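Usage

Read records sequentially. Each one opens with the input sequence:
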Amino acid sequence: MRGEWGNAVRRRVGSKSPALCVEKGSELPKGHRDRKYKGRCVCLGDRIVDQNRQAATFAELSSSPASINASKFGDWWACQNDPKLGEFTCQQSDATRAYTQSKIEGTPTWVRLPRDQWPDAGLQMRDPVCPLDKALYGHPDAGGYWERHCRNQLLAIGFTPIDNWPSCFWMEEYKMFLVVYVDDFKLSGPEQYMDTVWDLMKAKIDIDQPTALGKFLGCKHVIHKFDTTPPVTFWDNKLLQRKMTKAERAKLYGTPQSGKKDLNDTGDPTPIDAVPAVA
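and closes with the structure output:
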């Protein structure tokens, strides 16, 4: 079987492939929903050798994650408000086991599995190996294959890449701006189309249930809504002002300038130069 190897992962401890177990969100208080243990089987990318025990070479596909500037632009886009499209918003989601959603290509790679994961056909072998089919985390080209897979799936549902902004996409039909940072997705656009676009993405990419914008690229986002409606001025609604009493108008607009006429009780308008400025 050794003569059939393309590349093999050298054993680190006995015959078992390494596995990692980390506590995600360890800085958070105990009991927090985002503090949890996560396990991951990996490929030792720094220990991959060829059949001659020489360091293996790969295409070294480079990945180009989005920048913090792109993320900030997504924040700005989420703050827009359009008369036809309504209020905008921003949501985020994570890809589920992102790398292994894409296939590994290029140089064939063979890996050793932990003994408890050996297939029945390998139980009688001294050192069985299996071909690596998915882009396992740790493989030098895993990030590049995942990024290419993700990009192709997004293009298939109507997103177009933005020039000179890596891992950023625009969907003209729904006015959506998408930022992808490895396996994190940040979607900004009209609130009424959010579910529609997420459903399109779910049909192509295995992602978690989208949530309101929280922590992304190390930044914690807190959303505040402000009333941006401009104050009512004298000429905005004459009918409303005609029904106001002097006391009500004074409370809304302030006391009229000295020597100037105000709206009288019959509703006759004051000359425009006599209308007090609204602070």
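Summary fields computed downstream for this record:
- The CA atoms of residues 187 and 194 lie 8 Å apart.
- The longest helix spans residues 142-156.
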